[in-house]
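Hey, quick one: can you model this chain's 3D structure?
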Amino acid sequence: MQKSTSILRQILIAIVMLLCLNVSETKAQQEPLYTQYMFNTVSVNPAYAGTRNAMNILALSRLQWAGLEGAPRTNSLTMHTPINNYKMGVGFSIVSDKIGPVNNFYFNFNYAYRVNLTEKMVLSMGIKGGIYNYKAGLDDLNVGSGTDASFNGNVEQKWQPNAGAGLYLYSDKWYAGFSIPKLIQTDLSGNQTTASNLSSLKRHYFLMAGYVFDINQDFKFKPSFINKVVEGAPPSTDVTAQVLYLNKYWLGATYRFGDALAFLANIQLNRQLMVGYSYDFSVSSLNHYNNGSHEIIISYDFDGFLKKKVISPRFF
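Sure thing. Here's the predicted structure for all 316 residues.
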């Protein structure tokens, strides 16, 4: 019995270290995952700040792999607004990302500057800076009866600086963006960061694009994709197809290659308020151990204080 308990603890230690120290060595990403990325662009690309021509506040809550103990939980709040007289956008984002005993906290300030390339095409260039906090509470794990020194106390809490940059090219019908939301590679173990260091925070690269097609007077079709690349992990690609009815109801589906199939539904309740929900089905080996992933967003545009009103609705 004692031998079985010891083996169980060794397995738990291995799992915890994989989750805590190196999510990038598996298929997971160190950056939080969003199925409704097309409505939460500022979280992954600072150049998006101020592009909606209205102050926007968006709240998102995601429960990944429901039913699996220690499953990831992400909550985020973003705000950004244009400063039209100066062709700038500013904003901030707050993210809490919990995976098992690991708590990740991000706070970033975003700044973007817009340049009109043509009458309808705009290039926005953005940067961001902030802080990242990492905390692993191993003493919260249930390892059965007895004690184990490996689980006594928390892993030392780490505060790290963060910086990022991005480009966002858009018109009223399409967009394309590239961003590096984590420019600074840092080492959580206190040693020199190397490519083989299991506890380092890796640099991430995001590429995204989308287009809105007019089917007829009532329907629009919007395909989009986002590709995420990080050293030590396979690329992660989401391809999404959405249909918009009467500029009010969004329905769509997303396929995350080798990982999940998701369905999305969003409602523009009025000119300013939109709510959305998505549900992911795992198509990987994890599908036997969880009940899917849930994500809810609430977005609100405060356009009343701006001198320039938004004439046509924004589709992204």
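One thing worth noting: Residues 1-28, 191-198 have pLDDT under 50 and may be disordered.
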